[in-house]
Amino acid sequence: MEMNNLWTKFYILCGISDGPAWFLFNVFPISASPNPLGREFVTTFLQNGLPRMLKGDFKLLITGYAPATTITISMKWPALRVGVNVNAGHTLSVKIPPEAEMVGSGIFDNTLTVRADRDISILSLNYKPHSADTTIVYPVSSLGTEYYVVTPSVGTDRYREVAIVAWEETTSVDVYLKGMVTFQGKPYTRGSKLTLTLQPYQAVQLQSSVDLSGTKIFSQKPVAVYSGHTCVSRQVQCDHVSEQLLPISSWGTNFIVPSLPFNTEHDIVYVSTSQNTRVDAQTGHSKTRRDLPAARSVLYGIQGTTAMSLSASSGIQVMFFNDGGTHQNFKYDPFFMAIPDISSYCQAYYIYGHDQFDNYALIIAKSSETSGITLDKRPL
Predict the structure, then answer these.
(1) Residue 358, SS3?
(2) Dihedral of CA 375/304/125/149: which sign?
(3) Domain spans in the chain, listed from the N-terminal domain onward
(4) DSSP helix/strand/coil, 20
(5) CB of 316 within 8 A of CB of 277?
């Protein structure tokens, strides 16, 4: 997607529906901070649904930005090494063995590393029948050492989960828990610190029956962190949700959170802080100001067709959660995603849709600039 006005900036959400369901898919800004383009990546697949559910269909959707880009995808256990090529402007779907899924709390060696000789971007698809989600996979250059967890916790008795993935150096990780977890047979209560060591390319998955939002992760070396839920639901069938988190060094201060035009229920916006922060929120003509304490994850509600804007005195993390519902003749499943800071808005995007689904996009732009938006070089 392109625009002919240099000052037009917007953010897109892209959804897909399969029969009665509606899933959220992501889009890639071509140039942003943190930049999703890179040459080295490490990722993993969180548990989707019950352990003995049908085997998953796991994929990496890899987009090239230069001709004849060579890519190597590796997994330590079970052993996997795949070489592929992708051209500029093309997206390659690479199927990953179902053994890549982590199940339960523990340390795992089934992480995936991706290396390319030119810049690429990656979208990860974790799919099982009626339970699917995607997340942008950020390159290792965007990883950090301090994160705050958000886990949706609405009307379900399944597991909130978080995964921490090491890159190519051994690292010690401290997890300051905001909910109880059991790890290697030992219970860790709310308020306790769990310290663990990850070898290169190892991952740990922690699961809990209670909300883990606000949990702080601090590591000696940069790590990737994923947060979500095995299968969350309140109004409709449950759906797996997961999202790669950004370190606090990449948080922003100004956000626009779009509402879904077909949704009449309240959606949830999670705002995470790392220090005492004043947050101004506006929905329509309604304005609020809240002084939020450090190391907290606070909920805001958003309803109807009016977007919410947020402005903070220091960096915050903003996550959007919709718990699903019904609109006219179709149901849409829960979804969870990170909202980017306005400063990361771009002028060109790739939209990831899916075959055999109905695909939707939500676009945020200045009203005066909407005539400059084009899709495949044609005006909308």
Answers:
(1) strand
(2) positive
(3) 2-358
(4) coil
(5) yes
Dist CA 299 CA 309 (whole Å): 14
More confident residue, 71 or 1: 71
Q: Tell me the sheet residues that pair with 278.
A: 291
- Residue labelled with tokens 């044609």: 378
Give 5 or 248, the one with higher predicted confidence.
248
pTM passes above 0.85 = yes
Sign of CA dihedral 99, 230, 131, 349: negative
CA-closest candidate to residue 34, choices 277, 242, 222: 222
Residue 76 CA to residue 286 CA, distance in Å, equals: 52
Burial of 378 (0-12, 13-18, 19+ CB in 10 A): exposed
Would you state the structure tokens that stand for residue 182, as one six-digit string?
């059991």
Q: Tokens at residue 229, please?
A: 């839920």
**Positive or negative, the Cα torsion across 50, 51, 55, 59?**
positive
Report whether 124 contacts 41 (CB < 8 A).
no
